[in-house]
Design brief:
Elements (H helix, E strand, L loop, with lengths): L12 E4 L1 E8 L2 E15 L2 H4 L3 H11 L5 E5 L6 H5 L2 H9 L4 E4 L10 H7 L1 H14 L4 E5 L21 H19 L2 E3 L1 H11 L14 H16 L14 H17 L1 H4 L10 E8 L2 E8 L7 E7 L4 E5 L3 E7 L4 E8 L2 E8 L15 E5 L4 E5 L6 E6 L4 E6 L6 E5 L6 E7 L2 E8 L1
Parallel strand pairs: 3-4, 3-5, 5-6, 6-7, 15-21
Antiparallel strand pairs: 1-4, 2-3, 8-9, 9-12, 10-11, 10-13, 13-14, 16-19, 17-18, 17-20, 20-21
């Protein structure tokens, strides 16, 4: 596959910062976005031009949110370049940033998928993992950039989809959304707001090179990023730089509409749900055995089970499941989960071990698959949803069905060798081993 080219443009280093807070209410966790103390921008000239980090800070200040910002923006820099740069590693280690905004080289995500999968996605994950290694509770935001004013002339001949703004912009949109999904992160919808304003106004968002943002383009990006981070609408007295009030209002209105009307598109951060678990028990002689599985799984979280023996909590295991333990009388099982929203717990108490009322443990069947493209799920009841999780409990696929069928075919052709769990109607159904 031909590798497509991107421009390298030199720029400078900036400094800036942000704030995150957690509210516990009624046993549930809610990510709050007030009092952000530090934001780190990792990008290139699209972030450097017009000092976007400082523009975001000034917008925040005008809205009552005071924070610092730090930016690292060498010209033309890719995620690969950042992931191998000791200065980036040092930035991550020096401070636990509340928010990290990541921007890829402006052309690369619009290239053919095979090149994006080899040159972009792995290094986006490397950067995200590096941030979370130092602060697992950092909010990750991908800054989705826009198509060039007249498409990418440099690569148009060999890759026709980027010959126009529309084609290039759509590819950038799709690839940034995928990075959000893959990394359980947010996506600032700059790309979509850019298109909406291009389609509905005469506002000039570009500099003379047809690539970098004008003051209007930077204001658009800053408002979209600010609203994504703080999850609030733009109020009066917003910082506008040299923009007219009319252009500011157009930008603010479109940014607000696109972000808040489609939060499920931009938010792939799964930490905000409370923890739950499902269980089954089985009487074996005079003892009672317990099997349990966390129902809502955040791959970044720490899962720890405890058994209360009426004297102290005994640590059982740090994992999303319990395969089999013996329960004492008046057992109290607690699952505690620490994730990007903080700490949550779910408790189950067995007041007596009456084997006549005990649930029968469900046997988890294992199906070995080899050279199969489809696999039939026979559930015995109406199938409403199917989820596939890998052995690390990462969600691989979700399928929602609107039928009365109790059987359905599942596409497994894309699964790599390994162990997977099939969840039907939010119930653990079977284990798949792909060989």
């Amino acid at each position: 596959m031909k590798n497509f080219k991107y421009n390298l443009i030199k720029t400078s280093l900036f400094t800036l910062a942000i704030i995150a807070n957690v509210l516990f209410t009624g046993g549930q966790l809610f990510a709050q976005n007030a009092k952000i103390k530090s934001i780190l921008f990792i990008g290139n000239s699209y972030t450097a031009v017009n000092d976007l980090p400082n523009w975001v800070r000034l917008i925040g200040e005008s809205q009552g949110d005071t924070f610092e910002a730090i930016g690292y923006t060498p010209g033309g820099r890719t995620f690969y370049g950042h992931s191998t740069d000791p200065q980036v590693t040092n930035l991550f280690q020096q401070k636990n940033y509340d928010v990290v905004v990541l921007q890829e080289q402006s052309q690369l995500p619009s290239f053919p998928l095979s090149q994006v999968e080899s040159d972009c996605y792995p290094y986006a994950k490397t950067l995200v993992d590096s941030v979370r290694a130092n602060n697992p509770f950092a909010k990750i935001v991908f800054y989705s950039t826009w198509g060039r004013q007249n498409g990418d002339a440099q690569n148009c001949v060999n890759w026709p989809p980027v010959c126009s703004f529309k084609g290039m912009n759509q590819l950038l949109h799709d690839r940034y959304i995928q990075m959000g999904v893959d990394n359980y992160a947010w996506v600032a919808p700059v790309n979509s707001v850019w298109k909406a304003i291009r389609d509905s106004s005469q506002m000039n968002l570009y500099q003379g090179d047809g690539s970098h943002p004008s003051f209007e383009g930077t204001h658009l990006a800053a408002i979209s990023i600010y609203q994504t981070i703080f999850q609030k609408k733009i109020g009066a007295n917003c910082f506008t730089g040299t923009l007219t009030s009319e252009n500011h209002e157009i930008i603010a209105r479109n940014s607000q509409r696109i972000l808040f009307d489609s939060l499920d598109v931009w938010n792939h951060d799964t930490c905000k749900v409370p923890v739950k678990f499902e269980y089954s028990t089985k009487s074996i002689g005079d003892t009672l055995r317990l099997w349990a599985q966390a129902k809502i799984i955040d791959p970044r979280a720490d899962y720890t089970w405890y058994l209360n023996d009426n004297k102290s909590y005994k640590h059982l295991v740090s994992n999303t499941r319990i395969d089999s333990i013996t329960l004492p009388k008046n057992a109290k099982i607690t699952l505690k989960v620490r994730n990007a929203c903080g700490l949550d717990s779910s408790i189950l108490v067995f007041t007596e071990l009456n084997t006549k009322t005990i649930q029968k443990a469900k046997v988890l069947n294992t199906v070995i698959l080899s050279d199969l493209k489809h696999f039939t799920i026979d559930y015995g009841q109406k199938i409403q949803s199917i989820q596939i999780l890998d052995q690390f409990s990462k969600l691989i696929q979700t399928t929602n069905l609107n039928t009365t069928e109790t059987k359905t075919q599942l596409n497994v052709s894309y699964l790599k060798p390994g162990i997977y769990f099939v969840i039907v109607n939010n119930q653990l159904h079977l284990r798949i081993m792909v060989i």
